[in-house]
Write a structure and sequence with these properties.
Largest sheet: 2 strands, antiparallel
Radius of gyration: 22 Å
Distance between the termini: 41 Å
Structural class: mainly alpha
Helix content: 55-70%
Oligomer: single chain
Number of helices: 21
Number of strands: 2
Length: 424
């Protein structure tokens, strides 16, 4: 990294943290806009339950499940959450720091849900999100051969011309920032492995991949599709790796990566009396015979291409340059598979959100066909895209700043509701 790169990403971190803290400073704890609320509380509950309450719900603050928007529930004096344990693993260092600060200040009430613990989610989301963008930037420069100016433009498009900014600031604590970091790190380490053939780097690839899987199990299907591109494109280099490297690196990586899964099994046994139980037992892909693709892609209610138009560049690149590398079509397949799976889910929009969030963490992969398109742009085209990028960023930022957190429009195609966020 050059000095200017360090300065830019430090400033980017500061900007994201400022926006996140400023947004949440307007709302108190236990408000539906607060950091530890609804889904986010369901992810985070593993930490206070483990380190403060010994998984005894009777020791937890009275009514805490209701106070945090029923992100988890208390049944038969047990804490029940349907959300996987992996996000809590990623949040642990920040939870520990907030706990240490609380201890120094003599905090006694609502331990695990103090003001510092709420702020810990702002910090963890911003740190992982910034690191993810940094890893994508380094990969585009070092491996995909973009000029630095083009790489910065790519970062702007990923952050501002999508719903990523929303999930790094407004919805801090959701899984997407942590997953984006893991996928960006896996890609970065994969190229390091091709260059070094080190078993330790391979172990890192495997361990981080499994950590990502522990955060959202269904993503394993999507991750496999994205991984096919890298396996097929670099199969010649992979064939030169020694068997001992595969055995050692793979073994160590799997052992490390299985830790969160062991924790998940133990939790399942505690909460449901069975290692194989799941909190998603009552949810299913019941919409498989009524998938509304146009609504999923373009509707004001979370339409992915409306809130993340950068994906159009990625899809264009995966088709346009397929003759140079036929494996690029796997990225189109990735987009279609995510659309198909979530379109078949009982709640295709995944509930409240600013744009469909099922695609957000996969921007790390979609960045590759985007980079291929950008390599063919002229200087004049880049200048025009910079201008368009800032304009789209401003529009989406205005919309998300006014967005209340859920869609209240008259049906999924209420364009007036969306327009109201922008001009409010």
């Amino acid at each position: 990294m050059k000095l200017v790169d360090k300065i830019v990403f430090i400033l980017l971190f500061g900007l994201l943290l400022f926006v996140s803290l400023n947004r949440h400073s307007r709302h108190p704890r236990f408000d539906y806009h607060s950091q530890i609320y609804a889904d986010k509380a369901g992810y985070q509950v593993y930490l206070p339950a483990t380190f403060y309450y010994d998984w005894d719900a009777s020791q937890m603050p009275a009514g805490i499940d209701s106070l945090v928007g029923s992100g988890f529930s208390i049944i038969d004096n047990k804490v029940h959450t349907k959300y996987p344990v992996g996000v809590a693993v990623m949040q642990l260092p920040f939870f520990a720091l907030a706990a240490a600060i609380d201890n120094m200040h003599g905090e006694q009430g609502y331990l695990g849900y103090t003001e510092n613990q709420h702020l810990a989610l702002n910090w963890s989301t911003t740190v992982y999100g910034t690191l993810a963008l940094l890893l994508i930037f380094l990969t585009t420069v070092q491996q995909w051969k973009l000029a630095r100016g083009q790489a910065y433009l790519l970062v702007l498009l990923l952050l501002g011309c999508s719903n990523l900014l929303y999930y790094l600031t407004r919805d801090a604590g959701m899984a997407h920032a942590y997953l984006l970091f893991c996928y960006a790190l896996v890609i970065y380490l994969y190229y390091r492995f091709l260059a070094t053939r080190s078993w330790m780097v391979l172990a890192g690839v495997d361990a981080i991949s499994l950590l990502a899987l522990s955060m959202r199990h269904i993503n394993g299907l999507f991750f496999a599709i994205a991984g096919v591109y890298f396996l097929l494109t670099y199969r010649t280099q992979l064939n030169k790796v020694a068997r001992s490297t595969w055995a050692t690196g793979g073994g160590v990586g799997v052992i490390l990566g299985c830790v969160p899964f062991v924790l998940q099994l133990l939790y399942n046994q505690y909460a449901y009396g069975s290692f194989g139980a799941t909190g998603y037992a009552n949810e299913s892909f019941s919409n498989w015979d009524n998938i509304q693709f146009l609504e999923l892609w373009f509707a004001p209610n979370n339409g992915v291409l409306l809130y993340a138009p950068i994906l159009l560049i990625a899809l264009y690149g995966s088709v346009k340059y397929r003759k140079e590398n036929c494996h690029l079509l796997w990225f189109s397949g990735l987009f279609l598979l995510i659309s198909l799976v979530y379109g078949a889910w009982w709640s295709p929009t995944l509930g409240c959100g600013f744009g469909h969030r099922g695609f957000t963490e996969f921007f790390a992969f979609f960045a590759l066909p985007m980079a291929l398109v950008m390599k063919h742009w002229t200087k004049k085209t880049e200048q025009i895209v910079w201008i368009i990028g800032f304009l789209v960023t401003a529009v989406l930022f205005s919309a998300q700043w006014s967005f209340d957190g859920c869609w209240y429009g008259d049906g999924p195609w209420d364009w007036a509701e969306l327009a109201g966020w922008i001009i409010r």
